[in-house]
Amino acid sequence: MKKINLSYWGKLVLLIIAGFAGGALATVIINQANPSTTNQAVTTSKVSYKNKTNTTEAVKTVQNAVVSVINYQESSSNLSDFYSQMFGGNNSQSQSSDDELSVNSEGSGVIYKKDGKYAYLVTNNHVISGAKRIEIQLADGTKVVGELVGADTYSDLAVVKISSDKVTSVAEFADSSKLSVGETAIAIGSPLGTEYANSVTEGIVSSLSRTVTMTNDSGETISTNAIQTDAAINPGNSGGPLINIEGQIIGINSSKISSTSTSASGTSSGDSVEGMGFAIPSNDVVKIINQLEKNGQVERPALGISMANLSELSTNAISQLNIPPSVTSGIIVASTYSNMPAEGKLKKYDVITEIDGKEVSSTSDLQSILYGHSVGDSIKVTFYRGTDKKTVTIELTKTTQDLPSSNN
After folding, report:
1. What CATH number should be reported for the domain whose range is 305-402?
2. Which CATH class is domain 176-295?
3. Fewest C-beta atoms under 10 Å: which of 8, 126, 137, 291?
4. pLDDT value at residue 268
């Protein structure tokens, strides 16, 4: 019988066992290095950091002074029947008139002063126009009743005062004359209402001294000086602040262009427009709110004329004015009022083309230039009387309150 070499087979068995053991060990190591997602929950990073930028610091500076402004008006539905059903008989008459008010619109505002028991905020006139009750929602969600101090239709600004006991922060106005195109502009407010209060959008100052023409609540066509920005401004942002990188107010957000009408530039009716918002410059705002606080209204100078746009006349009517053919735009003096600055200086059928060297093409141009002055200032009016071009200095000694009508 042949003898079996046990040492050979023993070595073979040991080699096989070592191979299995190595494979098992490798599997354990691989599983530990790559744990199965089914056996271990996903977690967030343990790394902590402070994500602070100039923008976050600017917002932090002013955000507690930004508020939502809620305009309550009489409800369109008749609630008297409801109260009669709920309370019976004449008990509905005992309900507060506030019960029949409902939210008409919502906007934004910013608190700029805390003085004793009152704090003062600025918003847009169109935000509070027609309000029977004004409520202010503070940054922390607290609601307080606001009292209208004064409003100005032409500038679209209004001042509201509230109790100061819950006000923790006020905003500061920057000098808007020092703004540069391209610098950071941040809008804070309540787009679409209080549900989105304290929303922040960022852009740049797109342009300065834009003339924005619109129709105010009185149906008047007005032209205002504005800052243009591409920071997103939506309904509800009206009245809120546009701030610089230091957290200072550079303007009060007022309007935006969302679509265009046909123009020579090739745009067509209804073209969608993005990134064209406008804010009232802070220097203009300060001038207006100081007057609203003091008088409840803004005192503006008046010429004392009734007028019409030259461009609105027929060619036959223009020919009777006997003005040079080169004069195609301006303001026609229809009449002058007694005891007003224009009396004795201007006459019927004069065509005003410039004030203080600035071109006047429409009544809104005249308003814009005139309302940029104060009572007591003097202006130089350039006009045509027939073919004669004349310039006269007129002292603005009267206000719009002295006018017999809404004319200038």
Report:
1. 2.30.42.10
2. mainly beta
3. 8
4. 43
